[in-house]
Amino acid sequence: MRGHETGPRDGATRRGHETGPQDGATRRGHETGPRDGATRRGRGHETGAGPRYGRVFEGIAKAGQSTDLNDFYTELFITERVSGEVNKEHEVRLIETASRKPAKEETPIKLEDIFKPLPGQDQPSRTIMTTGVAGIGKTILTHKFTLDWAEGKANQDIHFTLPFTFRELNLLKEKEFSLMELLHHFFIQTKGIRRYDRFHVVFILDGLDECRLPLDFQNNPIWTDVTKSTSVDVLLTNLIRGDLLPSARIWITTRPAAANQIPAECVGMVTE
């Protein structure tokens, strides 16, 4: 993966008509609020947060210089999931060897194809994990995916893109929500939606390495009711393992050292 990582993202996206005045979720239509997470087409021109995702400040650029997100060249590569604990020493080795990795060991996946079946597969992977060392461009990658979707360039079968950061989810550690309430908390426009299982939904969970929640997959109860309140930790573990809203697709980004917080059986494909 090539690129430079940036700070917290905003918003969510959905295609359709506006349902509320709040910020947080974007769809193709009319602009809805200051926290919109992607661009949409409306009245013949781009609206929403396209400029936010469209231009980012590049880490190696001179102070104050920004780079057009569409100019970034990004590729994903399928990798074997590392078994056992991945420590910081291994992460340093990844930095040192990244440029020396033979191309023949890597299978490129186009960004727009990340949620599509791979050759030889009948179904796409439900849960994708993208690993990479700090600053390599994991957050930028999720922004580019959202921007391309919102601009109508790719993945038009997706109805909602719901980006979260673990940094902001940490702040809700002591609170309880239903999944519906959690979505309404971040994306007020979703209050008009009652049946997410009728839509193609992508949850982006960015920055697993910053997670301060237990993510207790072994002991957390099974939770299947999107209207019933529980801890955010229980919601996340059930969402990731597919007990809660199994029709949703999940994309997790993380540094390699934190990847093992998610059980291997819960991850359909690992990319870097």
From TrEMBL:
Has UniProt tagged this entry with the keyword Phosphoprotein? no
Gene3D superfamilies named among the record's database cross-references: P-loop containing nucleotide triphosphate hydrolases
- The organism's superkingdom is given as Eukaryota
Task: Region Disordered: list its residue ranges.
Answer: 1-53
Keyword annotations from UniProtKB, A to Z:
Leucine-rich repeat, Repeat
The residues covered by the NACHT domain are: 126-258
Would I find Repeat among this entry's keywords? yes
Task: Show the ranges annotated as biased composition (Basic and acidic residues).
Answer: 1-39
Which PANTHER family does the UniProt record give? NACHT, LRR AND CARD DOMAINS-CONTAINING
Q: Which protein is depicted?
A: NACHT domain-containing protein
